[in-house]
């Protein structure tokens, strides 16, 4: 569900859709999303007007007004994107989170109660999905680290017990440092250094270009060097 | 057009009219009627125990039974509250008071039994294990019904919702079983009734996400 990179830095991702008047049912399709420049910081739970309009649109959507529903989903995306970024940190994971949230919103839209505020309803769903995504990411990372530890263990079998212990400790420290890297750098390290793929092979398996992978790998190695400063990495 | 935009287009195209949820009170009533019907069916098939009227004439026993019933009802109401996104999670504490009263009245019963029977009040009664089996057998369909009614909670608060659903179902089942089973000391009630309620609730807390995964996601 990754989004093209060139769109992530577009104006839509940095602005919040302006409050637009609540349309009459059946007229929403004629309205164009307005790209007025409200900063992301303005997205707050106190923004009750926005919440009221979203609630009204959702009530129309529950009654079968697809145009109102389409407008609502378009309108909540910047809010969800800002919220997701706070949780997951990077752009591509945040966009995945936004899409997952939209699917859940669609699936359980009948649980919105029209007489109650919309924003707490949306925020609860969004927060829960982001937490789930973070948990999934942590589990995936732990799995990858476990695999890396296995590799280190195999490589250390011809060493003396002291050397093996030393290598094992260094491996754990390296694994922990890798886990602290941003997702794109971690992916570059995993593909280029751990799986030892060529740049072309790595780019084919990733949504990053060859240039991005090179930069991410270079930055990752610098970060790892800083993180492991003073530790002997000769076995690397 | 990016992936998110096309997803929005698809979702909007697929959107059909949906009926918003009924109020938590109405849904609690609907579930309570279903639970009462099942318990009545069990009571009718097994027969009320003959000493029921005498037992219910004793204030502590009556308080114990009412507290178990209230625990079940208020836990169900809490389930219908916390399973809705945006409603306060503090509703989860709603059954705490009747639960405390239930435990306290059983504790009081243990002391009263000891006063009347001496150390025999703490004797092991193997036949009381039937209660645990009956409570489990009634709780499972009741609990599943409740979870199906709030399956949208799988995307919001799976673990606490599943725990409260199990607490509700098991407490209602315990109240029902108390009508047909007799001759137990309060210690056995504590062990088999409360023990099963606690076990089912904690198991549901631990397996909440899997339970909702097994039931399947909500689809408006």
Residue runs with pLDDT of under 50 for 5 or more positions of chain B: none
Please, what is the average pLDDT of chain A?
73
Compute the average pLDDT of chain B: 90
Outline the biggest β-sheet of chain B. Answer: none
Order of helices and strands of chain B: HHHHHHHH
Helical percentage of chain A: 55-70%
Protein structure class of chain B = mainly alpha
In total, the number of strands of chain B is: 0
Low-confidence stretches of chain A: 1-44, 232-236
Count of DSSP helices of chain B? 8
Quick description:
The complex is a heterodimer of chains A (236) and B (220). Chain A is mostly helical and 236 residues long.
Overview of the molecule:
- Chain A is mainly alpha-helical.
- Helix content of chain A is 67%, strand content 0%.
- Chain A has 10 helices and no strands.
- In chain A, helix 6 (118-155) runs antiparallel to helix 7 (161-179).
- The longest helix of chain A is centred in the middle third of the chain and has 38 residues, at 118-155.
- Residues 1-44 and 232-236 of chain A have low confidence and may be disordered.
- Chain B has 220 residues and is mainly alpha-helical.
- The mean pLDDT of chain B is 90.
- In chain B, helix 2 crosses helix 4 (59-82) and helix 4 (59-82) runs antiparallel to helix 7 (158-180).
- Chain B has one domain (24-219).
- Chain B contains 8 helices and no strands.
- Classes of the chains: A mainly alpha (236), B mainly alpha (220).
- The A-B interface holds A 1-4, 7, 61-64, 66-67, 69-70, 73-74, 77, 95, 98-99, 102-104, 106-114, 116-117, 120-125, 128-129 and B 2-5, 7-9, 11-21, 84-86, 152, 155-157, 217-220.
């Amino acid at each position: 569900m990754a989004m093209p990179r060139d769109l992530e830095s577009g104006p839509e991702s940095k602005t919040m859709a302006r409050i637009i008047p609540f349309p009459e049912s059946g007229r929403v399709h004629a309205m164009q999303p307005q790209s007025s420049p409200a900063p992301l910081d303005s997205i707050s739970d106190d923004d009750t007007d926005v919440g009221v309009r979203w609630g009204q649109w959702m009530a129309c959507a529950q009654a079968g007004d697809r145009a109102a529903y389409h407008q609502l989903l378009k309108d909540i995306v910047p809010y969800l994107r800002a919220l997701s970024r706070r949780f997951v940190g990077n752009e591509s994971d945040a966009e995945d989170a936004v899409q997952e949230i939209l699917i859940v919103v669609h699936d359980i839209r009948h649980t919105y109660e029209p007489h109650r505020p919309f924003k707490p309803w949306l925020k609860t769903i969004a927060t829960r999905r982001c937490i789930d995504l973070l948990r999934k990411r942590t589990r995936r990372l732990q799995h990858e680290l476990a695999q890396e530890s296995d590799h280190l263990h195999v490589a250390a079998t011809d060493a003396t017990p002291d050397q093996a212990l030393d290598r094992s400790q260094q491996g754990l420290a390296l694994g922990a440092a890798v886990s602290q890297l941003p997702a794109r750098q971690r992916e570059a390290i995993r593909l280029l250094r751990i799986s030892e793929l060529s740049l072309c092979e790595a780019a084919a398996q990733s949504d990053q270009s060859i240039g991005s992978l090179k930069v991410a790998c270079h930055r990752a190695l610098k970060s790892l060097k800083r993180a492991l400063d003073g530790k002997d990495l000769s076995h690397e | 057009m990016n992936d998110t935009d096309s997803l929005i287009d698809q979702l909007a195209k697929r959107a059909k009219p949906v009926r918003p949820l009924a109020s938590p009170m109405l849904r609690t009533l609907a579930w309570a009627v279903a639970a009462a019907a099942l318990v009545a069916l069990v009571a009718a098939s097994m027969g009320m125990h003959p000493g029921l009227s005498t037992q219910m004439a004793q204030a502590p026993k009556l308080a114990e039974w009412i507290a178990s019933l209230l625990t079940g009802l208020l836990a169900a109401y809490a389930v219908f509250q916390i399973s809705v996104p945006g409603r306060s999670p503090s509703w989860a504490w709603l059954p705490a008071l009747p639960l405390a009263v239930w435990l306290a009245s059983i504790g009081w019963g243990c002391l009263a039994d000891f006063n009347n029977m001496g150390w025999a009040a703490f004797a092991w009664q193997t036949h009381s294990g039937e209660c645990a089996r009956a409570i489990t057998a009634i709780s499972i369909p009741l609990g599943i019904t409740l979870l199906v009614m709030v399956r949208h909670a799988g995307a919001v608060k799976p673990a606490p919702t599943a725990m409260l659903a199990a607490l509700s179902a098991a407490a209602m089942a315990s109240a029902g079983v108390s009508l047909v089973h007799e001759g137990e000391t309060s210690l056995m009630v504590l062990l088999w009734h409360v023990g099963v309620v606690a076990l089912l609730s904690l198991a549901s807390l631990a397996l909440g996400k899997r339970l909702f995964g097994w039931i399947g996601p909500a689809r408006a």
